[in-house]
């Protein structure tokens, strides 16, 4: 299965970075029907065809995702959209 692993540096306080990830997670729930929960400073998410995590660190956001067979052909598009969203929220 294809994997995505993206690390994006940021300069926000940890609490602010976590709040941004919370907002993004809410949108993921609404738009894609993803389930997710926090485990420490990592938001773990899943839905049919994808599982992953968003780790909030002091100086970076780490997004990891594993795509199922149906989303495999779209890996490039999914990765591009994740990078765009990270740039939008953590530039």
Structure description:
The mean pLDDT is 93. With 91 residues, the chain is α+β, with helices and mostly antiparallel strands. The longest helix is centred in the first third of the chain and has 19 residues. The protein has two helices and five strands, in the order βαββββα. It has a five-stranded antiparallel beta sheet with strand order 1-5-4-3-2, covered by helices on one side. Helices cover 38% and strands 36% of the residues.
In brief:
By secondary structure, the protein is of the alpha+beta class.
**Quick one: how many beta strands?**
5
- Distance from N terminus to C terminus (CA atoms, Å) equals 30 Å
Strand order of the largest sheet: 1-5-4-3-2
The SSE order reads: EHEEEEH
- Enumerate the spans where pLDDT stays under 50 for 5 or more consecutive residues: none
User: Largest sheet, if any?
Assistant: 5 strands, antiparallel
User: What is the residue-mean pLDDT, rounded to a whole number?
Assistant: 93
Per DSSP, the total helix count is 2
Structural class: alpha+beta
Classify the beta-strand content into a percent band.
Answer: 35-45%
The Rg value, from CA coordinates, equals 12 Å
How are the SSEs ordered, and which strands pair?
Elements: E1 3-9, H1 14-32, E2 35-39, E3 42-47, E4 50-56, E5 60-67, H2 75-90
Antiparallel strand pairs: 1-5, 2-3, 3-4, 4-5
Characteristic key phrases:
single chain; 91 residues; alpha+beta; 5-stranded antiparallel beta sheet; 2 helices; 38% helix; globular
């Amino acid at each position: 299965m294809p994997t995505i692993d993206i690390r994006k540096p940021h300069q926000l306080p940890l609490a602010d970075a976590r709040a941004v990830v919370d907002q993004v997670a809410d949108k993921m729930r609404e738009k894609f029907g993803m389930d997710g929960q926090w485990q420490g400073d990592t938001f773990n998410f899943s839905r049919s065809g994808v599982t992953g995590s968003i780790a909030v660190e002091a100086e970076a956001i780490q997004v990891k995702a594993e795509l199922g067979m149906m989303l495999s052909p779209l890996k490039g598009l999914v990765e591009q959209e994740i990078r765009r969203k990270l740039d939008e929220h953590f530039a």
